[in-house]
Write a sequence for this structure.
């Protein structure tokens, strides 16, 4: 059995690739730039661009199963990509989607839905005549790697919404669920919504990083307006900024979001072990913050 991993140089695809290789599977990895991606030698690395199906000629030959990510790259071309994959013989596809995709939410399926790319990819895969599983990941713990430069430089994190607890999830758990769906039977048709084991606020996350690196760190709450200015200046995508903070003329209110997050037990149900805590994640990434 040969498994293809797209997004293989990314946070989740990279972890899927490493876990599959560690379990002894034959893995092919897709990247636009094999030199820059610097992927493990035991993977068969092919060049390809999901936005340009002509670059995918032959990449799916002898591939049985596919991990498909990221949705933003493949949504516009997904039908061509799936046609190439299924014609070549791919029979099972696991997508990386988002826990923010909710079918009965107003606007679901509209072109301007906040996670329209994920919906497009999920629906196309469901219609492709293959076995499928959607891995709808919640907020990645790895997002807080963005804090590393400020922590290393000054021991302080400036961020909005200090009171909002989130059920953040470790990339190793997201990848492990994807690997289970790729390699075990019994996951066809599942839409797994993945969270960590507990709700944790940004100041608690900062404290956990401080404990992991043995240093006192400080959390400083900033206003959503300040965060908007900072994030746009850092080059963050405007759609992402609006999703996080709301539009400028109708910003989201922190008090509306406090208590809104929910936990699931899908990681534990699939893996037969509890999801990793944020403290575990901080320990795993301590060197990134030193
Ligand atoms: N951050 C969160 O909290 C969160 C939560 C739920 C879901 N998500 C979803 O997770 C996805 C991002 O996953 P990630 O963080 O693992 O990715 P990432 O670390 O941002 O890496 C992006 C990956 O996409 C690949 N890629 C980008 N454009 C490509 C293209 N045109 N053709 C082929 N490959 C392309 C890159 O490969 P090369 O550069 O090597 O080609 C790279 O491996 C997004 O769809 C996001 O919506 C994120």
């Amino acid at each position: 059995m040969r498994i293809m991993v797209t997004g293989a140089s990314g946070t989740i695809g990279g972890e899927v690739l490493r876990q599959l290789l560690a379990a002894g599977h034959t893995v092919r990895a897709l990247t636009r730039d094999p030199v820059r991606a610097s992927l493990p030698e035991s993977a068969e690395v092919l060049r390809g661009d999901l936005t340009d199906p002509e670059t995918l000629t032959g990449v799916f030959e002898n591939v049985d199963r596919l991990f498909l990510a990221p949705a933003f790259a493949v949504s516009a071309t997904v039908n061509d990509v799936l046609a190439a994959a299924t014609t070549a013989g791919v029979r099972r596809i696991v997508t990386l989607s988002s826990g923010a995709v909710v079918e009965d939410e107003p606007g679901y399926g509209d072109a301007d839905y906040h996670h329209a790319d994920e919906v497009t990819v999920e629906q196309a895969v469901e219609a492709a005549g293959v076995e499928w599983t959607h891995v709808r990941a919640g907020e990645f713990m790895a997002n807080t790697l963005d804090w590393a430069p400020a922590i290393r430089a000054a021991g302080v994190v400036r961020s909005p919404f200090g009171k909002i607890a989130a059920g953040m999830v470790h990339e190793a758990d997201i990848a492990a669920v994807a690997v289970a769906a790729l390699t075990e039977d019994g996951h066809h048709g599942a839409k797994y919504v993945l969270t960590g084991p507990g709700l944790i606020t940004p100041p608690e996350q900062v404290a956990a990083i401080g404990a992991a690196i043995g240093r006192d760190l400080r959390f400083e709450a900033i206003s959503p307006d300040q965060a908007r200015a900072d994030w746009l200046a850092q080059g963050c995508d405007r759609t992402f900024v609006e999703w996080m903070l709301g539009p400028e003329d109708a910003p989201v209110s922190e008090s509306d979001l406090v208590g809104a997050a929910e936990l699931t037990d899908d990681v534990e149900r699939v893996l037969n072990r509890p999801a990793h805590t944020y403290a575990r994640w901080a320990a795993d990434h301590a060197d990134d913050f030193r």
